[in-house]
């Protein structure tokens, strides 16, 4: 699997830690691949034996030349959403990819042709990500009476 250059290094490290049965290569680790335009990247990746590209470039599928290059390459394309900056953003990206990539790779291993996969994002809103309890106001079961 080839990671597009827009995939962060921390996410790359996380992926290689939990996806052990696939070779994971970051585009930035390949000589003279950095800066390759997407319409040239897909045919080049296919020619070099890659089967899957992971990207977070959601706009790629809105650009006709890039869509044509993806289709012509025959490569599977996996996209994950990444719209949040900083530590929260990288945490959400890692969580999204960690939760969805193994299942996506299993589906692709059985696919009889090219597939386009979008991993669904983890909801970053505090209400959906956190449960905060004030034990003084709503003590959990077995909480001691400290009064």
From TrEMBL:
For this protein, the record's Pfam families field holds: PIN_10
Question: What keywords would UniProt list here?
Answer: Membrane, Transmembrane, Transmembrane helix
Q: Which residue ranges does the record assign to the VapC45 PIN like domain? A: 2-76
Membrane-spanning ranges: 87-109
Name of the protein: VapC45 PIN like domain-containing protein
**Which organism is the protein's source?**
Streptosporangium roseum (strain ATCC 12428 / DSM 43021 / JCM 3005 / KCTC 9067 / NCIMB 10171 / NRRL 2505 / NI 9100)
């Amino acid at each position: 699997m080839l990671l597009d250059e827009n995939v962060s290094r921390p996410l790359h490290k996380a992926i290689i830690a939990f996806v052990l049965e696939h070779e994971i290569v970051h585009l930035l680790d390949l000589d003279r691949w950095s800066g390759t335009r997407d319409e040239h990247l897909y045919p080049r990746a296919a020619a070099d034996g890659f089967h899957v590209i992971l990207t977070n470039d959601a706009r790629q599928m809105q650009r006709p030349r890039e869509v044509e290059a993806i289709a012509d390459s025959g490569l599977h394309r996996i996209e994950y959403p990444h719209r949040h900056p900083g530590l929260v953003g990288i945490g959400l990206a890692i969580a999204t990819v960690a939760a969805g990539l193994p299942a996506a790779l299993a589906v692709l291993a059985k696919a009889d042709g090219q597939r386009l996969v979008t991993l669904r994002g983890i909801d970053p809103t505090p209400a959906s990500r956190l449960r905060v309890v004030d034990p003084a106001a709503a003590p959990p079961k077995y909480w001691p009476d400290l009064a």
